[in-house]
């Protein structure tokens, strides 16, 4: 089977002189880019799942089956960057050409993450030395607050999925309030699309820059947005208790994350002030078409990965917990990665480890008129890198589940 490689239309080295990559093959134009034919072995067949949460739209595919999409991973030495690499090892069309990690520049990726030593990858370079002339799309896995200026300097033809919080909040004044500094790329914020895939699929398809959601907001909005849109729950008195594995805090050395600080215990943090609060409220308010305020308490728990959100809601008059369940089941019936468990089965984080799934279930509370919704994800996959791959698949016109059909790892 012949495959093709996307060619960027403009030279692209961030802040440096452009350098053009070369492949020996014939070129042909496609959708404003140049495609170069290379040989690739047969690819697995994949099916596209239609969304029932966001209405489908016709789109001319940017990439055809067999086209190679050349990827840059910025911030590859962090947990989300490493998870991108792990997921792309199973992706038939996304291939990594550039990897950056300023503190690890010059090192082989396999020496930073030995579990991925089998992958044929470029050496790590500093962001300032990255050559984007041979790149079609970027996963930006850099720390919050560092991404805006870097993305502002990237070539305009690149498709970008940003895993930081830098473009999630539409209101740049609200961003400044919660993140402690003014927005450094307000013009880009205007074009950024929030990447909650199952809810905003149509907008993501046509986006150039996608702000990948946070882990807590993903686990919370997936169950709540459909219920709020259907007016099945009241908007006041939404109480959320959420728990995250330690990888949610990133790979940087922090005293609070030392083994002796977190072992054999659980502790709340960011009480009334967690930065995911405005992101969650933004999505819920959009669904309600009015301001929604939540009570949210995040907790750090002594495990490597995983996230559970327990959401307490007050139901609208005449609505039962079974009504909530049936509506969520109907909403996500055609979805690949969001599943309602059967009967009284309780979602556990161990059910989704290593996968792009979100499992949830609804339970009637002992307090009349109230219900509990439990939602679990792997914070590094559906809560970060997996959803990022899902979004870039959409942006490139590829099947949404491509490279993401990993089953959960259990036991």
Automatic annotation (TrEMBL):
Pathway: Amino-acid biosynthesis; L-arginine biosynthesis; N(2)-acetyl-L-ornithine from L-glutamate: step 3/4. Belongs to the NAGSA dehydrogenase family. Type 1 subfamily. Keywords: Amino-acid biosynthesis, Arginine biosynthesis, NADP, Oxidoreductase. It catalyses: N-acetyl-L-glutamate 5-semialdehyde + phosphate + NADP(+) = N-acetyl-L-glutamyl 5-phosphate + NADPH + H(+). GO terms for biological process: L-arginine biosynthetic process. Residues 70-207 form the Semialdehyde dehydrogenase NAD-binding domain. PROSITE patterns: ARGC. This is Probable N-acetyl-gamma-glutamyl-phosphate reductase, chloroplastic. It comes from Eragrostis curvula (weeping love grass). The lineage of its organism: Eukaryota, Viridiplantae, Streptophyta, Embryophyta, Tracheophyta.
């Amino acid at each position: 089977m012949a495959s093709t490689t996307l060619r960027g239309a403009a030279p692209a080295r961030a802040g440096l002189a452009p350098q053009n990559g070369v492949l020996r093959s014939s070129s042909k134009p496609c959708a404003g880019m140049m495609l170069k034919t290379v040989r690739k072995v047969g690819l697995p067949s994949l099916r596209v799942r239609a969304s029932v949460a966001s209405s489908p739209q016709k789109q001319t595919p940017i990439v055809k089956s067999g086209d190679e999409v050349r990827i840059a991973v910025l911030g590859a030495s962090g947990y989300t960057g490493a998870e991108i690499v792990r997921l792309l090892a199973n992706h038939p069309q996304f291939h990594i050409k550039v990897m950056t990690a300023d503190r690890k520049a010059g090192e082989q990726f396999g020496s930073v993450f030995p579990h991925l030593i089998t992958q044929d990858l470029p050496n790590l370079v500093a962001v300032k030395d990255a050559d984007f002339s041979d790149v079609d799309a970027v996963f930006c896995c850099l720390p919050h607050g560092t991404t805006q200026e870097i993305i502002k300097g990237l070539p305009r033809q690149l498709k970008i999925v940003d895993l930081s919080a830098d473009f999630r909040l539409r209101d740049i004044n609200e961003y400044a309030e919660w993140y402690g500094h003014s927005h450094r790329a307000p013009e880009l914020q205007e074009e950024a699309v929030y990447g909650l895939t199952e809810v905003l699929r149509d907008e993501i398809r046509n986006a150039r820059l996608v702000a990948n959601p946070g882990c807590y907001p993903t686990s919370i909005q997936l169950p709540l947005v459909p219920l709020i849109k259907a007016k099945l729950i009241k908007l006041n008195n939404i109480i959320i208790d959420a728990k995250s594995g330690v990888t949610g805090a990133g790979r940087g050395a922090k005293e609070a994350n030392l083994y002796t600080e977190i072992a054999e215990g659980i502790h709340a943090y960011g009480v009334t002030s967690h930065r995911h609060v405005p992101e969650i409220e933004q999505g819920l308010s959009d669904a309600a078409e009015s301001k929604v305020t939540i009570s949210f308490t995040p907790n750090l728990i002594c495990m490597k990965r995983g996230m559970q959100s327990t959401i307490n809601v007050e139901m609208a008059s005449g609505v039962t917990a079974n009504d909530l369940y049936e509506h969520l089941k109907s909403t996500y019936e055609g979805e690949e990665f969001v599943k309602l468990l059967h009967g009284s089965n309780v979602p556990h984080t161990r059910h989704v480890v290593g996968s792009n799934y979100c499992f949830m279930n609804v339970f009637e509370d002992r307090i009349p008129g109230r219900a509990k919704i439990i939602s679990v994800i792997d914070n590094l996959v559906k809560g970060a890198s997996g959803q990022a791959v899902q979004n870039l698949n959409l942006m490139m016109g590829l099947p949404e589940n491509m490279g993401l059909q990993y089953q959960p790892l259990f036991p």
